[in-house]
Amino acid sequence: MEFILNPWPWYISGPLIALVMALLLYFGKTFGMSSNLRTMCTIAGAGKFADFFNFKWKDQVWNLIVVLGAIIGGFIAVEFLSNNSGTDLNPTTVTELKNMGFKSPGQTLVPNEMYSLDVLASPKALILLVIGGLLVGFGTRYAGGCTSGHAITGLSSLQKPSLIAVIGFFIGGLIMTNFILPLIF
Amino acid sequence: MKALKFLLVGIFFGIVLVKSEAVSWYRIYEMFRFQSFHMYGIIGTAIASGVLFLQISKRGLIKNIKGADIFVPKKENGLLRYILGGTIFGFGWALIGACPGPMYILLGTGVWSMLIVIAAAIFGTFIYGLLKNKLPH
Questions:
Q1: Staple partner for A73: which of A11, A52, B8, B15, CB 3.0–4.6 Å?
Q2: How many whole angstroms separate alpha carbon A104 and alpha carbon A94?
Q3: Which of B91, B107, B135 is opposite residue A74, by nearest beta carbon?
Q4: How many whole angstroms separate alpha carbon A87 and alpha carbon A41?
Q5: To 10 degrees, the CA torsion angle through B108, A10, A104, B94?
């Protein structure tokens, strides 16, 4: 049981993520998590404001069910399949983050400094979460996919547009982590 | 029954992403600082396995549930939308440490403030829909 309760190594995890893609393709669908954001806009009535949201959202219900499953999966993983061993980060990363003011790097999945409910009383944390969400939601649709649609499905099927998008993901990510995060924290 | 298989795939996806630590904000930070191989290993082996699966299915050795060929939709050709949209996405991904899949999964792990991120992401997609015709693609 210990190998299930401990964090899984990358060489097990990667192929299992590919299995998720393979299963969805086998069921005649595709692996793309960000499409759900558009579906939710349509359900909320966004079609009145932009034609982009006028599509048969009922054809996407299966994907919303995948989302529901993912939420349940997250719950099962932390409640029943974990031993709270924490994340084994590079010591350099830990020192660096501590110097930036993060108290317990790797002890939780997300930093309390950004996500704990107490922090929500501070405008800074709230603004960061909102800006981050807006960037992801806008960027993913502009790019026509996210990590699942472009990095996994698109690159697995050797598509050039996905390679360009993933290069974009890294340009943005590298700039944010190396140059902007140190200014924020 | 039709819905159940998608629910099970979703549950499996959620478990894998938590156990692999791909939903960890810290792992994303570490990846963009080139301080660990972990995330590159995950993404690399996922793509390698995916290529293998699609190459086998392309030769007709694996069919879908209806007996037809495995079909991956083609992305439209383009440059600007992918590089610009991708970069904007990357800014957000590195800031909040979560892309659209992990957002939902982290909510399931009890990170309630993720609801704010999800609401903002839905609104971000809405803004894209409003501006779509004015943006270079």
A1: B15
A2: 8
A3: B107
A4: 35
A5: -70
B104 contact partners, CB below 8 Å, separation of at least 6: A33, A67, A70, A71, A74, B14, B118
Q: Find the closest chain A residue to B62 by CA distance.
A: A26
CA atoms of B124 and B130, how far apart (whole Å): 10
The tokens describing A140, both together, are 């993913």
- Token match 């992801």: residue? A136
**For chain B, where are the E strands, in sequence order?**
none
Considering only CB atoms, B99 lies closest to which of A29, A131, A136, namely A136
Distance (Å) of CA A180 to CA A34, A125, B84, B94, B136: 25, 15, 18, 10, 26
DSSP conformation class of A152: I
Confidence of residue B4 (pLDDT cuts 50, 70, 90): very high
Residues contacting residue B68 through CB under 8 Å, at least 6 positions apart? A28
Q: Do A110 and B25 lie within an 8 Å CB cutoff?
A: yes
Task: Tally the residues of chain B.
Answer: 137
Q: In the prediction, which pLDDT does A121 show? A: 84
Q: Provide the residue type at A22 as one letter.
A: A
Note whether A110 contacts B57, CB cutoff 8 Å.
no
Question: H/E element holding A75?
Answer: helix A61-80
Please give the ipTM for the structure prediction.
0.97
One-character DSSP codes across B37-83: SHHHHHHHHHHHHHHHHHHHHHTTSSB-TTSSBP--PPPPP-SHHHH
Average pLDDT along chain A: 96
pTM (2 d.p.): 0.97
Of A39, A33, A72, A62, whose CA–CA distance to A151 is shortest? A33
